[in-house]
Give the backbone structure.
Amino acid sequence: MSTICAISTPLAVGGISVIRISGERAVDVAARVFFPFSSRSVYDMPGYTCAYGEVRDKDGGVIDDAVLTVFRTPKSYTGEDVAEISCHGGIFVTRKVLRVCLDAGAVPALPGEFTKRAFLNGKLSLTQAEAVSDTLSAEGDHALRSAALMRKGRLFKSISEVRDTLVKRLGELAAWVDYPDEDIPEVDESELLASLDECKARLEKLLRDFDSGMLIKNGIDTVIAGKPNVGKSTLMNLLLGFDRSIVTDIAGTTRDVIEETARLGALTLKISDTAGIHSTDDRVEKMGVRLARERLKECALIIAVFDISEPADDEDRELLEFINGLHKKVVIVLNKTDKAAADRTAFEKYSDHIIAISAASGEGREQLTEVIEKMFTPQDYNADTTIFANDRQKLCAESALGCIDDALAALKSGLTLDAVTVMVDRAAEHLFELTGEKASEAVVNEVFAKFCVGK
């Protein structure tokens, strides 16, 4: 394999930048560009050691002071010799250090190629490699905890246990079917049934958590809706922690959809602040109202805001009925408690989640956070065990579950054990693909193509 090189830190001005080199000639490439201030040779550096020196170009010109760290095979991230040059974090100097490493014999790394090599060299399972990507993209505590569990091999272990159970049963079935004349104990169908039911339950748990996991990992598509001047923009600014939406006493200030990302406890909300929904003859306002209604149909969470300093009117009731017909998760926010006491009577039949707040003062934000976290955290969520699968893993688990269902149906209907064996074998194959032990080259390439360069 070629020796690869890439910038592993964000290409932006910062304290340091790291240029990573991996492959059989990693130390040789480093030795051609890095010169320690001590008399020690780069070639003589053992693994897990650092040296302070300078990076020079092929003509001997000094580019920057730097620190070289060497990791020797197989005790490195990729399982190969690895050298990392930490230089000052300027964009120009970082690119120049990369350039001299390429001139010294390295080739540019592809997206995710370092982690792909770690997988190919047996340092990571495929699910652990995917967890690296999940860690980088995590935007909330639940997503980060799930990624940490996967990096530690929790998903691999769990799926392997299910797969090993299936393989064990396959051995018993194959022996019974293929060697009927031998003195082999008859397959106990009740035990087989119990084993398949247990495997089914474990896969169903993984799939049950998938939808919640996607929302937690990708952010919850959230719309703040209400009539003009009820405090939608003030609430959005409160959730964001900074002023994003324009707030005035003039009704109809927001005429378009304003989108931002807010972190609420362990969750991330992709929030849209929409135009006030009401009857109007203003052409521009009508367009804003239409856009607001369309966003309500698309989102996963609606925060419906009402001004409790004014009595509920026909437009409030019309909005409530419209939202009710969408069958979405809804939090009703009764705003402006600094001006009036909250009367929940007109709202109770539309949602179990009604929060009284003052968006202007910040009162009620913590309660709103707690309610939304409870709504979107899986019912049996346990931070120490819950794993959120990705789309590829879900597809493999669904395929395996379908085969197990077919095997159970065949067993219960009295079909021959040959038919059951075929279904169990297919289920095991799908789980081998999930863990990466029998994944095709195309699947592996697709997984790592989603990584950034340098990881």
